[in-house]
Amino acid sequence: MRLPLLFFLLFLLVILPSFLYLNYSVIQTREEAITLIPEIDNNVVKGPVVMPQLKNSTIKAELGQSSWKLLHTMMARFPERPTQDEKEALRSFIYLFSRLYPCGECAAEFQAILAKHPPQVSSREAASQWACAVHNIVNQRLQKEIFDCGKIAEKYKCGC
């Protein structure tokens, strides 16, 4: 009977406080890290493509479909009246996405499109319409059906 009690006391006095301290220190470190994030250099955001060519056409097609779903859903959930910080976060994400996209040749094409059609981030509607227009530029190049951008909000309805 004394052995289980001893283990319970050991747990309460030694293990539990250590566990709580470790978890608290991780949270504290994370919070500190968030406040210490440096400004992102514009050269990092708008730098060259990082990824190599993606030769597998099946993977490339799946990646494209999934990526467009992500981008359109993100735009559909973007704030209607974003703050300046939210606008910059989305703009930076789009440019970083174009650098880090796993298909190097697709990323280069996306960067060329961004040079002519920079992200529109003033509102949810502007971001959604921009993404639809950019997607249609890609669809046209790939000889795919052009989507009616007037229906984009309904297709990616998010309940926002």
From TrEMBL:
InterPro entries for this protein: ALR/ERV (IPR039799), ERV/ALR_sulphydryl_oxid_sf (IPR036774), ERV/ALR_sulphydryl_oxidase (IPR017905)
Enzymatic reactions: 2 R'C(R)SH + O2 = R'C(R)S-S(R)CR' + H2O2
GO CC list: mitochondrion
Name used for this protein in its record: Sulfhydryl oxidase
Highest taxon of the lineage: Eukaryota
Cited Pfam families: Evr1_Alr
This protein's record includes keyword Repressor: no
Swiss-Prot/TrEMBL keywords: Disulfide bond, FAD, Flavoprotein, Oxidoreductase, Signal
EC nos: 1.8.3.2
Species, as recorded: Rhizophagus irregularis (strain DAOM 197198w) (Glomus intraradices)
Cofactor(s) for this UniProt protein: FAD
GO molecular function: flavin adenine dinucleotide binding; flavin-dependent sulfhydryl oxidase activity
SUPFAM superfamilies: FAD-dependent thiol oxidase (SSF69000)
Signal peptide: 1-20
UniProt domain ERV/ALR sulfhydryl oxidase: residue ranges: 56-156
